Amino acid sequence: MAVTTELLDALLSPSGGSSSGGDPQHTPRAQAEHHLQSLSITDRTAGLLNMLLTLSSSSSPSPSPSDPANAARQMLAAVLLRRDIAQLGGNAATGIDSATASSVLTAMVHPLLQLFLNGDTNTTCKVTKRQVGHCLAELCLSCSLLDSPTTSQEVMTAVLTGIGPGCSAADPTSLLLLADLAERSPVTLWRSSGTNGEALASLFQGVLSALAQASSSSSGNSTTAVAEKVEASLEAIVQVAIASDVATSDGSNNGDLARAIRSQAGAASAAADGSSAAGGVKVNPSSPASHLGRATLPSILAMVGGDGTNTDAEAQRRCMQKLSHAATHCPSLLAGDLQTLTCLIQICLGVAQRGTSSESAADDDEEAQTASLSSLEVMASLVDVADVRKKIVLTSKLAATTGSADLLRLMLLGPSATSPSDQNGVVRCCAELTINGVDDDVDSWRVDPPSLQSDAATSWEEDDAAIYAESLLESFLRSLGGGTATLPVVLPLVEALMNSAAGAANGSGWRQYRAALSILERCLDAAPVTFAPHVPVAVEAALNLASNNPCERVQLQALQLLGALCNADTVEDDPAYSPPTNATPIQVRAVYGGRILQAASALVASPCAKVSSHACLVLVSFCRGGNGKENCGVSVKKDYLVAYLQDVLMSLASGPLSLDISDPVKVSAGAVTVLVRAISAVACLADTAGEDFAPFYSNIMPGLLGCTQFGLQIDANGVRAASAGSAIGHDFATLRGSAIESATIVGEAVDNESMFVPDAEKIVGIILPTLKAAETGADAVSTIIPIDQLLAASARIACVMGERYAQFMPAVLPHLIKRVREEAEISVVDGDDSGLEATKQDGAEFDEERGTESVTFALPGVGLRKLILNTTQMQEKSQACRAIYAHASALGAAFGPFAAECIDALLPLVTFKYSSDVRSTSAQALGPVFDSACAGALAGSAARDLPMRALQSSTKALVQQLQVEDKDDDETVFALADALSEVLYSAYNHVNELDGKHIAQLSVDEARVTVKQVIDIMKSCLERRTSIIRTIGGYDGVVPNEDESAQLYEQLMAEGRNLTPLVDSIGYTLKSLGEAFVPVFKSVVAPFFSPLLTASGTIDVRARFAAVCLFDDCVEHCGGAAASRYAPYLAEAVVEGMDDTKNEGDEDLKAASIYGVAQIARHAPNSVFDGSVNNVTGQLSTIIKSAEGKPKDDIEDLRIVENAVSALASLALFDGAPYAKTNATKMSQRQSLLPTFLSYLPLREDPDEAKICHEGLCDLIESGAIDVSSNSAQLINIIGGILQYVEEGEEIATPGTCARLGAVLNAMEQQ
Questions:
Q1: Nearest Cα to 1055, choosing from 1022, 1081, 1031, 1029?
Q2: Closest Cα partner for 176 from 122, 228, 112?
């Protein structure tokens, strides 16, 4: 049986038809599908094409081609044919050779083209004609993959020639086919249209003429037809422009195949530099895309914004979406010249203003509002491109002198505004949509229960327009000159909104209040540096409205702003935070902490569950937020909290913690969500208060333990639900999991074993039977307590119990290993056009219910495919890795017996390609696990050869992943680099006391390969840092504004943070090998780092720091010959590095330089500093004298001062110091240094330097250089302090030194 109408009808059967016995495998549809697949691809394509031609023929037998059933057959035949055409492009999967596949494809060109063109006679429905067009576009791509460029161009030329007249007449279907050709085969299309696209340029001139004619003669229903033509024309222009950029690029992509794949993921940049991020796409004024924009856009835009589609807001929205796509992927089309850019902004502003007018708001015109949002999206996408942003800001600077258009002012204030008070630009439009885009049904919003899976401030679907407008406003605030340009526009608007709301009757101004608070939050996020002076006003507004406004919507928005302010607060103890020198610290907790806690405490008892829940989140932000992050990684100062802790806990206890979750009514109103968030707040409060939480422990812990077992029955048979009632389900499982995690956080925070260990044992009594139930594969376990929360709680208990927890590891570890080793759940299924379009527009699709993420691709030779990832499983893998990290860190050597299994499980995840979080957490876990392997091997609890094997495999995996990791993913890059550093440090740090050998060590050859790879990674990092430094400094002639500078500085710090562990990795390898490392240093390290030692070789002070550190290590650890060779290079660098006029204030470089002086003094020839000794000693003395007279606790840079003391003593004071005893003058100088040296003893900041100096003190006493009798009181204090600190566990003196100091004391007593 060939392809027949009966076959198509069977395939179209909605239920598959009936079969004998009801077997679904034998329904007519199943049999038809089987038959279709049994045909060879050549027979199938021939049959489908023939059926298409037959069904569309006016001479075909009844039913007629226009019959609905016949139209459905045509549609199906076209869809199936397109699939086979795609497979022919990947002919290896079809079993036929390229020549045959090419022959089949080229034979279809003319029939398909005629079928497409004959659609104008109405014998083929428009939808089917569109599908035939898809077939032609797919055919052109497949030919380009199979044939020589000449043949594929011939096919493309034939198609272009055929559809040319239709395109010139502005036929929508022909233009959409042209757009498809551009998208699917950009290189072939461009090569087929002349050297510079002359054929396409001529075609678009015809399009413009046809549109002008149609627009001038349109009336009534024909207006819709004109709008359709305009929309199709714009789609074709955008796709052809993108294609021109691809085709004229530098060849870094691989023609149509690369484009066909890259274009699917929504990141298909057509920039010549191959960049995929909007901010990295370049605008080229001389590009074909720019020329196309100049020639076509002014006319098209006039029709979009005025003559062509102004009566159809939905058509305007679709046109704006196309322009937004162009802004992201081909900004040269829209901003190649000032005239085109100005026209675009004017038209977009016009559309935005119409959708935000008072008339639209009064009429509740959703279509006009949606079109307004789309036009704002175009402008937001465009200003996100750096080149466009610079051009707009530059027009503002030139307008005053040249009289040219001020595009910055135009966008911010609108076309006719004279001041911020009568503005009608993007800020006003976004504000109006923020006001009018929220649902006015407060009662429905109030009773809608909060969800653990969503944010109450953004999850109300009826508020989508307002939420999106707020995000667009934030983009404008960030991109249009930063806060310096935008805040003078937006803040008066906020003040006007507040005044308007205050004057409104009966609380009707709540939407203005809400909008004002939301806009303040967006200002804070977008321009934190320039907004800092306005923080007090924002805090006062939020506190006032949170405490005094009766509307719950306003209260929640005020809480949202308070939480954001806590997240923005400056937390100086954060080691990852290093603000720009000119940034004003944001002081929120220090000034307003008490009032924020009081406001949040009052609202946790709100009868509105959303408000109560959000108030708990504010408490979480208060404890954890800072430096622009929701969790800054360090606890805030407890002083901000402790004075209010009792009142806050009482509010929680009488409010959300007292909710009766056994009441189904309260549960349905959101009680479980509120309770979960209150429990999380308690955990954060305890974590911040630390031991000061102990007085409240006995009141809090029983309730937490009760929640961990709510609705459960735990006995000898294990753990199970007490009943099948309401306590089973996701929210209740989360409640129990949050309670068990919070209980362990509280227990760890109070730091009192006697208090927590009995309760910890109770928690273990829940954890172990639950894990046992999970081991049996019981499906209901996930509805009892989430396993990841159990394992996290287990890890915290391990931190408290330490090695005593090792007895539980055989029960816990299998669950961790199981999750780590689980094969990733990844599936590839058939995709569809809607999924492909969604991927292009929004990227990956997330299904929260299923816990999956998916993307759809159109793959040449395969067709549409949908890749589905189980993201829940990925999260579980990451959580398991974190738990392994915590257990290994807590148990140390006691984890040794489990290290081998963990390392084998973790290593494959370091290169896990589907999740950066899995890669980073598995890498971080390797550090403590490897350390426990080393400690265990020395203690006899792990195999002796394990550390060596693990070092080699771990180092190789980490370095290889660092080489390919996305360099824009700072967190993952740092995790990998830090893990590498930790592994190499553990290898260096664990030495067998019996033979003095390292328990694990890279060979010289392995070290050479590893170090070379690490330096290549560092080189890339330093290049990025240099580029950022140049941008901050305005080397390109454009000086960034304050907020842009802050963002760039943050990027710079992130790159610097990644650099540190890479330097350390080389350093630990060097120290481990010692003199054996010299060939590697000579051939790999020195050639790269020598030029970076001084400012003459780099503008990056951190590059100098890295170089000085490595040369320090070489001089110290690589033997006398290496010290003699490389110390002179280092000497010049340390002199410069200690000089505050030359080290750019970098304390790390200064400290490394001081350390370098000490190493040169101890290990290099005495003559190294002959030409600069006075300079060096003078700089060291200046550093030391800067702290004279201050108690050590008051010296901010005490480590630097103490190391300067050590360096000066090693240089000119100790026996054997190069400048201590050579002549009488130096002997006198030596004596003058003794009082300074003694005044800083004992040294404690750097244990290694302390040991050297305290041993040197013994030498000076024993040699008589120090007069014991005249310095007896001072020496007794010094020696007593050293011995006391050593007894307390500080490693600041060796046992031998302590014995010598004891002998000195005995001798002094006998005198």
A1: 1022
A2: 228
One-letter amino acid at 1025 equals R
* Confidence check: pLDDT of 1306 > 70: yes
H-state helical runs in 786-915: 787-801, 809-821, 833-842, 871-891, 896-910
User: SS3 for 270?
Assistant: coil
CB of 334 closer than 8 Å to CB of 297 = yes
**Type of residue numbered 407:** L
- CA terminus-to-terminus distance, the chain: 119
The predicted structure's pLDDT at residue 263: 46
Distance separating alpha carbons of residues 511 and 507, to the nearest angstrom:
9
The pTM (predicted TM-score) of the whole model is: 0.86
What is the residue type of 1004?
V
> Helix count (H) and strand count (E) of the chain?
57, 6
Q: Please write the tens of the pLDDT for every residue from 283-305.
A: 999 999 999 999 999 999 999 88
Burial letters 11-50, b for 16+ CB under 10 A, else e: beeeebeeeeeeeeeebbbbbbeeebeebebbebbbbbbe
Secondary structure (DSSP) of 440-454? --HHHHHHSPP-TTS
* Residues 906, 921: Cα–Cα separation, whole Å: 9
Distance CA 1058, CA 574 (A): 16
State which H helix or E strand residue 707 sits in.
helix 694-708
Residues 1095-1100: what's their mean pLDDT? Answer: 96
Residue 123 confidence (pLDDT):
46
Report the distance separating Cα 1008 and Cα 868, nearest Å: 41
Q: Where are the alpha helices (DSSP H) in 604-638?
A: 609-624
SS3 870: strand
CA distance 1141 to 1144: 7
Query: CA–CA separation, 543 vs 559, rounded Å?
Result: 8
Alpha carbon distance 1232, 1209 (integer Å)? 11
Find, among 225, 222, 182, the residue nearest to 200 by Cα. 182
Are 717 and 667 spatial neighbours (Cβ–Cβ below 8 Å)? no
Residue 537 CA from chain centroid, whole number: 31
Q: Cα(915)–Cα(909) distance, rounded to whole angstroms?
A: 9
> Looking at the predicted structure, is the pLDDT value of residue 1238 above 60?
yes
Do residues 1198 and 1243 make contact, with C-beta atoms less than 8 angstroms apart? no
Burial of 1197 (0-12, 13-18, 19+ CB in 10 A): middle
Joined together, the tokens standing for residue 907 give: 């290593």
The gap from C-alpha 245 to its chain's centroid, in whole angstroms, comes to: 28
**pLDDT band at residue 1124 under the 50/70/90 scheme:** very high
- Counting every residue written for the chain, the total comes to 1311
Question: Rounded distance, CA 630 to CA 620, Å?
Answer: 9
What does the H/E/C string look like for 536-580? HHHHHHHHHHHHHCCCHHHHHHHHHHHHHHHHHCCCCCCCCCCCC
**Residue 938: in which H helix or E strand, if any?**
helix 916-939
Residue 890 CA to its chain's centroid (Å): 29
Q: How far apart, in Å, are the Cα atoms of 1057 and each of 971, 1033, 1050, 1106, 1240?
A: 10, 21, 10, 12, 32
**pLDDT, tens digit, 9 for 90 and up, residues 304-349:** 886 444 457 888 999 999 999 999 999 999 999 999 999 999 999 9
Q: How far is CA 315 from CA 127, 240, 368, 702, 1062, in A?
A: 19, 21, 10, 61, 54
Candidate from 95-99, 478-482, 562-566, 670-674 with smallest mean pLDDT: 95-99
For helices 552-568 and 535-548, the axis angle rounded to 10 degrees is 150
Under 8 Å between Cβ of 555 and 605:
no
